[in-house]
DNA sequence: ATACTTGCAAATGATTTGCCAGTGT
DNA sequence: ACACTGGCAAATCATTTGCAAGTAT
């Protein structure tokens, strides 16, 4: 598939719930796995695999980048993690518990902001009636110009 | 910038017009450059740098991949070419003359379809009033489930 | 003539794969 | 015990960069 297929999202509210979800899949709860989860909870927002592996730049225990990638993939399989691409550069990973957040990226200033899903429901509705597509602005952000940048240019 | 900045688009209708546009920028019209333009016109849709370099799989003269990348970048600077990402995998390049087309990608079956901009104007309007963003669905497609796939699954 | 370009090799960045040793259950 | 994992090296994919040789203007 070209884009990440839809998986049933599993919203977990804390580290403990996440560990439960992992166990429920018959997966082992290893330290590397736990570290990835900890980082995701500590980050409070989208982070790259690299950032997780570095322990969020030293704030947490560092771990092996390969394992981080493998665990992120596993956790996406479980449904508690998701990733998206905000432009060129590494993918950004988030907990599904940051539920349904969708992203807006400004093509001028580069800012990426998250909005709750309700914000985009009208747009979703408009797209559905125009094209038949049930949209999720999850894997890619919506790209445009933010207020500020629209004002300061053509 | 995280995403490709907005450039004034220059819609060219044929190879000749494209070559004029290149000349007008004081750029040289080399055979490698011309080959890239030819491929873009022959393709009638999004193509990867690799596909262009292969001469659209043998239908045209092949050329060096590095030069293709360099020329695509140059042509994006001129404003007659643009690229977007339909998912993981290589970027896809299109002529701006395929003016303002925007893309819808189905996350289930992987289909990517182009729609004319008017189709998405209502959605654009909805996003603008909800967020203040002036949206262009140009650098990334809109990801969702197409009609067919929505029917055959949850 | 000479600056812009090409083409090839090598580098880079992101991510994946192979493989064998390590460890949860 | 034994299959699931971790860690490290090496491979892969997309794209970029360095540089000497080529060529539009």
How would the blueprint of this fold be written?
Two copies of one chain form a homodimer.
Chain A: H1 15-24, H2 31-43, H3 49-53, H4 55-58, H5 65-78, E1 81-84, E2 92-95, E3 102-106, E4 112-115, H6 117-131, E5 134-135, E6 142-145, H7 147-151
Parallel strand pairs in A: 3-6
Antiparallel strand pairs in A: 1-2, 3-4
The structure holds a DNA duplex (25 and 25 nucleotides).
Describe this structure as you would to a colleague.
2 copies of one chain form a homodimer. By secondary structure, chain A is α+β, with helices and mostly antiparallel strands. Chain A folds into 2 domains: 15-95, Winged helix-like DNA-binding domain superfamily/Winged helix DNA-binding domain (Arc Repressor Mutant, subunit A); 102-152, Ferric-uptake regulator, C-terminal dimerisarion domain (Dna Ligase, domain 1). Chain A has 7 helices and 6 strands, in the order αααααββββαββα. Chain A has helices at residues 15-24, 31-43, 49-53, 55-58, 65-78, 117-131, 147-151; strands at 81-84, 92-95, 102-106, 112-115, 134-135, 142-145. A 3-stranded mixed beta sheet of chain A has the order 4-3-6. The longest helix of chain A has 15 residues, at 117-131. Chains A and B meet through strand 3, helix 6, strand 5 and strand 6 of A and strand 3, helix 6, strand 5 and strand 6 of B. The structure holds a DNA duplex (25 and 25 nucleotides).
């Amino acid at each position: 598939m070209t884009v990440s297929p839809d998986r049933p999202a599993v919203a977990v509210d804390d580290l403990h719930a996440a560990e439960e979800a992992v166990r429920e899949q018959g997966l082992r709860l290893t330290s590397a796995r736990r570290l990835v989860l900890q980082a995701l909870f500590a980050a409070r927002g989208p982070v790259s695999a690299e950032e997780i592996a570095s322990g969020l730049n030293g704030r947490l225990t560092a771990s092996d980048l390969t394992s981080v990638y493998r665990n992120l993939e596993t956790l996406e399989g479980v449904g508690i993690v998701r990733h998206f691409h905000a432009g060129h550069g590494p993918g950004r990973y988030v907990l599904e518990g940051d539920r349904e957040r969708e992203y807006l990226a400004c093509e001028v200033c580069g800012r990426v902001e998250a909005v709750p899903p309700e914000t985009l429901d009208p747009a979703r509705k408009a797209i559905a009636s125009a094209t038949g597509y049930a949209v999720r602005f999850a894997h890619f952000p919506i790209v445009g110009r933010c207020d500020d940048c629209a004002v300061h240019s053509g």
